Amino acid sequence: MTAPQPTPAPRPSPSIGILLCNLGTPDEPTPAAVRRYLAEFLGDPRVVEIPPLLWKPILHGIILRRRPAESARKYRSVWTEDGSPLLAYSQKQASLLRGWLGEAGLGPLQVALGMRYGSPGIVAQLETFRAQGIERVLVVPLYPQYSATTTASVLDQIHQWNMRQRNMLDLRIIKDYAAHPGYIAALARRTLEHWQTHGRPDKLVMSYHGIPQRNIDLGDPYQQRCLLTARLLAEQLGLRESQYRVTFQSRFGRAQWLQPYTQPTLEEEAHQGLQVVDVMCPGFASDCLETLEEINMEVREAFLHQGGKAFRYIPCLNDHPSWIDGLGDLVLENLGGWLPADAIARQPRGSRT
Q: Where does Fe(2+) bind (predicted)?
């Protein structure tokens, strides 16, 4: 008689956390809340590379006295019942990714959202992971194209926290995903769905957040990463060079930033006869003030004022199913060695894209 085989011991739940990171937002669209947010954001030396002795008097004596009221008005124009669009969509992404991983049989993975500035803060989420007994954390900055002004600032904060720990977390970092197939496929799907409804434009403009030209001259690869994304997306869409254009928005201060600038470019295009333009912002994982107010309100008005006939904004990836698939694939690809190999190998790749 064959002896009964022992029942295999259940696998322990992996103590792994997935930390999605984004820029952040004021808690509410009021001057006081915006002032707190801007003080933290513009006080980051990764964002403004001016010696503190020179910058702090300007920031606290001029900018934080004048800018919060105007910025609060702009935030109010895009605020929703769920609050800040950036926060609402980022929270949806975290929730949907958690569900995606659960459907893939990886439910024990913990997914959290941390904002570099404002709430919920990155440090608070790391403390929560620690309290949950999580020892390994995959950091996923939701900036598709790496820049020292964004991704590196997130990593600064995480490493500074980790350095203070007796038992440091084991960290793994996704530097960027500018060329990731799932991200490019999601952008293409979002664009094609827009075209199926509205038809193709005379030109597609891809507007990225700008940074000072000096940063690029000193070695920041951000511009190259933006151009790479644009080229790959254009190839997916079958666009010729004359059918799309890359621009940069959100210039701040008097220094030269990455060019061409979005609004002057579209004004000139309209003046030269461009009639129908589609504008998208591939550098933002979620719609926010810079996309909804600056692009879809201010730049729209400028283009139409100069003679353009139709300005059509293509929303960011937000909670689109193809992006959640791409994000899930991105996460799984970076968990090798932390999860059993068969758990990753059996997962469908981009099943909804």
A: 209, 290
SS (H, E, C) 106-168: CCCCEEEEEEEECCCEHHHHHHHHHHCCCCEEEEEECCCCCCCCCHHHHHHHHHHHHHCCCCC
pLDDT at 242 over 90: yes
User: Identical fold at 16-29+79-176+321-345 and 181-313?
Assistant: yes
Write the pLDDT tens digit of every residue in 291-310.
Answer: 999 999 999 999 999 999 99
Q: pLDDT digits over 248-262, tens only?
A: 999 988 899 999 999
Tell me which of 333 and 353 has the higher pLDDT.
333
290 annotated as a binding-site residue: yes
53-57 contact pairs (CB < 8 A, 24+): none
β-sheet bridge partners, residue 313: 279
Please give the CATH topology (third level) of the domain spanning 16-29+79-176+321-345.
Rossmann fold (3.40.50)
What CATH number should be reported for the domain whose range is 181-313? 3.40.50.1400
How far apart (Å, rounded) are the C-alpha atoms in residues 335 and 344? 8
pLDDT band at 340 (very low <50, low <70, confident <90, very high): confident
Token readout for 326 is 């791409």
| The pair of three-digit structure tokens given for residue 211, joined into one six-digit string | 């940074």
CB 213 within 8 A of CB 129: no
**What residue spans define the domains of the chain?**
16-29+79-176+321-345, 181-313
* pLDDT band at residue 351 under the 50/70/90 scheme: very low
CB proximity list for 29: less than 8 A, separation 6 or greater: 72, 75, 76, 79
Q: 185-215, pLDDT tens digit by residue?
A: 999 999 999 999 999 999 999 999 999 999 9
What is the spatial distance between Cα 85 and Cα 77, in angstroms, rounded to a whole number? Answer: 11
Entry field: residues in the chain? 353
Is 209 annotated in some ligand binding site? Answer: yes
User: pLDDT at position 336, please?
Assistant: 87
User: For residue 40, how far is the Cα from the chain centroid?
Assistant: 19
